[in-house]
Amino acid sequence: MSRKPFGKGWGSVREADGLAGGDFLRYSSRIGLAMELPQQEIASRIARLLGVAAQADLAGVVVFGRSFYDRPGPVGYLTGFLPPFPSSADAPGVSGLGQVALVLQGAAKPLIITDRFVRPFDHALFDVTATADVAGAVVAAVGRRGGALWGTAGSDIVPFDLFARVREGLASVRWQSLDRELHALRRHKSPEDVLGLRRAAQVAAAGFEAAIGAIRAGVRERDVAAAGMGAAIAAGADFVRYLRVHTGAASAVGSRWPPATDTRIAAGDLVSMDFVGAAGGYGFDLERTVLVRPAPEKAHQLLEDAHTVEAAALAVVRAGQTVEGLIAEIRRAADATRSGEYLSGFFGHGIGLETLEWPYLMPGQTGGLVAGEVLCIEPGLRCPGFGGAEVEDEVLVTESGCELLSPFRREPILV
């Protein structure tokens, strides 16, 4: 096995963990780590972030995350650990439920700090503290390790009160954000990540098949959602955040609460379904629109044009393509249809351990697409008061184009 430094003084991965990479799954089944990541991959990710910290002369890094069905990405990416308890309100003597912190510093063994509802466990690669006071444990850990300037990541995740307590307890420590640097590292997906995202998309496809099979005139939105969500869970989903089912005029609404209602589907309706959840720790986010026949010509046109525009978008996704260039191509494709005036303003996003990751494909965002990242491409056509159609797929960006990870029902769906 080749020697790959984990960080200053860590030596090789084998010396650090005493395990072959394939042993990770044996450990994951015992301690509840949901991601199928070799320990060598985890060690490499931590080493890269520590390298960034060293270049900035930081003493160490504290990374924050949340529960597996909320915002697990920063810590999950670096450890494979996905806290099981929901993010919750603090109470006297209880601070940080559903929160997790990872303390990294050079040669020191990485420390995971999580709430006490995690089962006690031992892991060769990490020290673990399960506590009712996550903030207090972070203060104690950083205080023991020393240093006047520390990096932090997950600043948009950690609760204000929790981090305020950390700053108060470490008044002599200054903090520098490494959020952008960690986001950049997370954009490139390893082969294990891509496999996990592909499997998650397949789980979503199984749910979609069941949901589509439930669509007919007279059926409620929530009945369609129940069919799809149940099938996805049976197919291996960790959880389903929602299967949003919007029918008729509501199909033109991107987000609505509740995601599915007692509204009954009628002939002629466009039924938009947005499916979000995770399987094996990896997110899925797919959308399909179904047309219930008989239907007016305008509904047929919207659905056909939505497929045309999404296909045009996929055709120009490649490494180096700019966000502005991609949006321009989408707008050109939409303008060439009869439905171009209904084009929405949000065209996609990255996906990984979280549903929405960098980059965002929307006006005002800059930069180029990166080989190895996974994107959700979702240009939609929405006619207020009538209905909308949207097709969303997950793709792996390559140097020459993109690879579909969700090859599900590429043609317009009519029932």
Describe the structure.
With 415 residues, this protein is of the alpha+beta class. It contains 11 helices and 17 strands. It has 2 domains: 13-186, Creatine Amidinohydrolase, Chain A, domain 1; 191-414, Alpha-Beta Complex (Creatine Amidinohydrolase), CATH 3.90.230.10. The protein has helices at 13-17, 24-31, 39-55, 73-79, 134-145, 160-169, 179-187, 191-214, 221-235, 297-315, 323-335; strands at residues 61-66, 99-104, 111-115, 127-131, 149-153, 174-177, 239-247, 270-279, 282-291, 348-350, 357-361, 374-377, 380-383, 387-390, 393-397, 402-404, 413-414. The strands form 4 sheets. A 6-stranded mixed sheet has the order 4-3-2-1-5-6, sandwiched between helices. A hairpin with a 4-residue loop joins β15 (393-397) and β16. The protein is globular, with a radius of gyration of 23 Å.
Query: Largest sheet at a glance?
Result: 6 strands, mixed
Strand order of the largest sheet: 4-3-2-1-5-6
Structural class: alpha+beta
Uncertain stretches of 5 or more adjacent residues? 1-33
Could you name the CATH class of the largest domain?
Alpha Beta
Give the SSE map:
Elements: H1 13-17, H2 24-31, H3 39-55, E1 61-66, H4 73-79, E2 99-104, E3 111-115, E4 127-131, H5 134-145, E5 149-153, H6 160-169, E6 174-177, H7 179-187, H8 191-214, H9 221-235, E7 239-247, E8 270-279, E9 282-291, H10 297-315, H11 323-335, E10 348-350, E11 357-361, E12 374-377, E13 380-383, E14 387-390, E15 393-397, E16 402-404, E17 413-414
Helix pairs in contact: 5-6, 8-9, 10-11
